[in-house]
Design a protein that fits this description.
Layout lengths: L1 H7 L1 E2 L2 E2 L1 H19 L6 E4 L1 E3 L4 E4 L2 E5 L2 E3 L11 H13 L4 E8 L5 E6 L6 H7 L3 E3 L8 H9 L12 H8 L1
Parallel strand pairs: 6-9
Antiparallel strand pairs: 1-2, 3-8, 4-5, 5-6, 7-10, 8-9
Helix pairs in contact: 4-5
Protein name: Nuclease family protein
Organism: Asticcacaulis biprosthecium C19
Pfam families: SNase (PF00565)
């Protein structure tokens, strides 16, 4: 033990200036490392829609963060909500450049991201406000207010009644 303390620069109960200097440097590094946050990965480019909550940019599949859109083939009342969700996403994407900030990677290896149009429109928020997706509570509370707004105003599927996309997938796929 005495040898270990000697290697640290501690002699008996006396701190050497070298030891104190190393300790201060170490603490500063720990503070800096603890407060520094990695920059999120940003993917940008022209996109195409796979469905109402999944797009592709430069060959990378991206799942929109915090939403669950109605599935292709899903019907909400008399509305083909799954097909409408895909068409709406295609319209939101348009021909412009999207910018997607990665939040996670899902179990299928897809990037999970918040994506915005070049004019700043949050695609996830817009899908939820149109009533063509729901807030995916299991992963985020980001779009709960938008979902409440869509429900109160009977937008999209909220005007017809529906099974959640998650429940629909479990019973139809």
């Amino acid at each position: 033990m005495a040898a270990a303390l000697a290697n640290l620069g501690l002699h008996g109960n006396v701190w050497t200036s070298g030891m104190l200097s190393r300790l201060v440097s170490l603490l500063m590094l720990l503070v800096i490392a603890g407060t520094a946050q990695a920059k999120p990965r940003v993917l940008s480019g022209k996109a195409w829609a796979i469905d109402g909550d999944t797009i592709v940019i430069k060959g990378q599949h991206i799942r929109l963060y915090g939403i669950d859109a109605f599935e292709e083939g899903q019907v909400c009342g008399r509305m083909a909500c799954g097909g409408k969700a895909t068409v709406a996403m295609e319209g939101l994407i348009g021909k412009g450049i999207l910018s997607c900030e990665q939040q996670d990677v899902d179990g299928y290896g897809r990037v999970v991201a918040i994506c915005k149009s070049s004019s700043g429109v949050d695609l996830g928020r817009e899908m939820v406000r149109r009533g063509l997706a729901v807030a995916y509570r299991s992963y985020s509370t980001r779009y709960l207010a938008d979902e409440r707004w869509a429900k109160a105003n009977k937008h999209g599927a909220w005007a017809h009644g529906f099974d959640s996309p998650l429940h629909w997938r479990r019973t139809h796929q």
